[in-house]
Design a protein that fits this description.
By secondary structure, the protein is of the alpha/beta class. It contains 18 helices and 24 strands. 34% of the residues lie in helices and 22% in strands. Strand 13 (362-365) and strand 14 form a beta hairpin. Helix 3 (95-107) packs antiparallel against helix 4 (112-130) and helix 4 packs across helix 5. The two termini are 24 Å apart. Residues 1-11, 106-117 and 123-137 have low confidence and may be disordered.
Length: 598
């Protein structure tokens, strides 16, 4: 992420002291604090391999010295030192909040409102931490809890909490994974924002919470609202949200309003969530809820396409390169980009021919003037059957939803790279993959927006990584390895799988160079079609279970990226066999087991 705007960087120390004084203040001593030059030397020793952006001595007694460390993705990690001996203090709370706030502030053009909302949310959280209720008492604050796999539910929860706090409500913002189901009984009111992972499962961070839903809890005094995020292309759409809603009702909680379900960032559903909160949360003095909005899509020029697997038995895999627009925010390795695609021209022409309509006919679509062909290109498949007029057809269209892609490059490289596999459908290529790999004009605009994915970011402190991926899942893992190489952090293990070494060994030269220079300590590959017996990454992981156990004993973190249909569940099963449910839960709680699968 690009450096935080100056207003945020100036305000962060004050807010962070409110949130976590133990990590940002020190006892006053009689001896003089260290000079900045000495503090810089102590910071370099305390955080080896981490580039120093700035070191600031405290401006008054009792405060810690502030250190800004550059992250591989172009962001800033703020830490604090004891100004008297230069020793690092405990990692301050609120780091993820500030990272998300800085990113959102930059993407909204530096508008002061984004900082005010964020500050209000943090201040509300601070008030709650200082005023815990007596045992058995219900918390007066409104709980906003989130369970997120790719960061979307977490971002929406942050926006929700910020808007409510700015309107004057006392708010407690918590990951659902930090709570037990019985903890909900201590709250009178709660807003829950949860995504669904895989086949109707909870996000990884909420696994322990979800398993406890089989038990009971007395929730008769709880009122709640629930936003469930999902993707209708999966059979168990919003499965975890629906499960959680049923459990809450079964145990006596009363919904404020019917569950709201969001299909792939549907803005209408998110707007309905805001209206429902405004109608049911009794804002102080009848205040209106401050508006919030998703970052706008911007045109990113398409500057390159390169086939990565010529001659492959599988679908074509294409490296797609986009040029960040001027002033665009950066990103960290592990983040994703949302693409707003367009339908294939041949598909649009077929729809027009079936209905005998002229694609050049002017219509109103999405509140703007357009041609009917443009409206169809930006929409899901139109309803079957004839249309009375071009405008009647336009009125019946549903806009396309964004498609998410893992980013395979670093912001510091000045380009955004994707690895996209073409999906073949009966009437052509898939909407997203076809647009990026075939139909978008070279040099022309691709509508895109960045989205932070903190649950798949690198660890805050360097540690060995076990990276497991198949196919285009190499994208995020490649970005992580680029970040590690840039920071000088080596000794990692990559397990990668595809069909054939001759045709599907993506970025082979790059991976072997990392093995040679020590960025990778180990590179294992599973090419399933290169021998009579099919071998996959999960087979390699099972065969190396003893070595994996040794890596985990040294503090390694496991990152899995790729197919949710076969690879990810199979790898998860191997880890369960070896570590057990409790062991895997402990890794998740420590941030040492992370998945980005699709």
């Amino acid at each position: 992420m690009a450096a935080a705007p100056s207003a945020l960087r100036l305000g962060q120390p004050v807010l962070q002291r409110l949130l976590d004084p133990a990590a940002t203040t020190v006892a006053v001593r009689e001896d003089a604090p260290l000079a900045v030059a000495e503090l810089s030397a102590r910071a370099a020793a305390a955080f080896p391999g981490r580039p120093l952006r700035a070191v600031a001595a405290p401006d008054r007694p009792g405060l810690a010295a502030r250190v800004e460390l550059a992250t591989a993705g172009g962001g800033v990690d703020t830490r604090y030192l004891d100004p008297y001996d230069g020793k690092p203090l405990a990692r301050p709370a609120g780091r993820r909040f500030f990272a998300a706030l800085a990113q959102r502030h930059a993407r909204l053009g530096g508008h002061p409102a984004s900082l005010l909302l964020g500050a209000a949310a943090l201040a509300a959280l601070w008030r709650l931490r200082r005023t815990a209720p007596a045992a058995g008492a219900r918390r007066a604050a409104l709980l906003v809890a989130h369970a997120s796999q790719t960061g979307h539910a977490e971002a929406l929860a942050g926006q929700t909490a910020a808007a409510l706090a700015a309107a004057g409500l006392e708010v407690e913002l918590r990951p659902l994974g930090e709570l037990r189901p019985a903890d909900l009984a201590r709250h009178a009111r709660a807003l829950l924002l949860v995504s669904t992972f895989g086949d109707g499962e909870s996000p990884d961070s909420a696994h322990a919470f979800a398993r406890q839903l089989r038990g009971g809890a007395a929730l008769a005094g709880l009122e709640y609202g629930l936003l469930a995020l999902g993707d209708r292309s999966y059979p168990a759409f919003c499965g975890f949200g629906r499960q959680l809603d049923g459990w809450l009702r079964e145990h006596g909680a009363r919904p404020w309003f019917d569950r709201i379900e969001v299909d792939r960032s549907d803005p209408a559903a998110i707007a309905a969530w805001r209206r429902a909160i405004e109608a049911h949360c009794a804002l102080p003095g009848g205040a209106a809820l401050p508006a919030w909005q998703e970052a706008a899509f911007e045109p990113w020029p398409l500057t390159g396409r390169a086939l990565l697997n010529p001659g492959s038995l599988g679908g074509a895999t294409v490296q797609v390169t986009l040029q960040p627009p001027s002033g665009a925010a950066g990103w960290d390795s592990g983040d994703v980009v949302e693409i707003l695609p367009r339908q294939a021209p041949a598909r649009v022409a077929g729809w027009l021919a079936e209905r005998g309509l002229d694609g050049a006919a002017p219509v109103r679509f999405g509140g703007r003037d357009a041609t009917l062909a443009q409206a169809l290109a930006a929409s899901e498949a139109p309803p079957a059957g004839p249309a009375a007029s071009a405008q009647a057809l336009a009125d019946a269209l549903q806009p396309l939803r964004p498609r998410e892609y893992s980013i395979a490059s670093l912001a510091s490289e000045g380009r955004l790279e994707l690895m996209v596999r073409q999906i073949a459908l009966a009437d052509g290529l898939g909407i997203g993959s076809g647009w990026l790999t075939e139909y978008a004009e070279p040099g022309g605009p691709v509508l895109a927006r960045l989205r932070a994915n903190p649950s798949f970011h690198l660890p805050a402190e360097p540690r060995p990584l076990v990276l497991v991926g198949n196919g285009t899942g190499l994208a995020s893992l490649r970005a992580h390895l680029k970040a590690c190489a840039a920071a000088g952090h080596g000794g990692h293990w990559l397990i990668f799988g595809e069909r054939s070494a001759a045709h599907d060994f993506y970025h082979r030269g790059e991976l072997e160079a990392w093995l040679a220079d020590g960025t990778l300590a180990r590179l294992d590959t599973a090419f399933s079609r290169d021998q009579a017996e099919r071998i996959y990454v999960q087979d390699l992981l099972r065969a190396a279970a003893d070595e994996l156990q040794a890596w985990l004993a040294r503090g390694a973190a496991i990152y899995v990226c790729g197919s949710a249909a076969g690879m990810a569940p199979a790898v998860h099963a191997v880890l369960l066999e070896r570590l057990g449910e409790a062991g895997l839960d402990a890794l998740i709680a420590a941030g040492r087991y992370r998945r980005d699968v699709y």
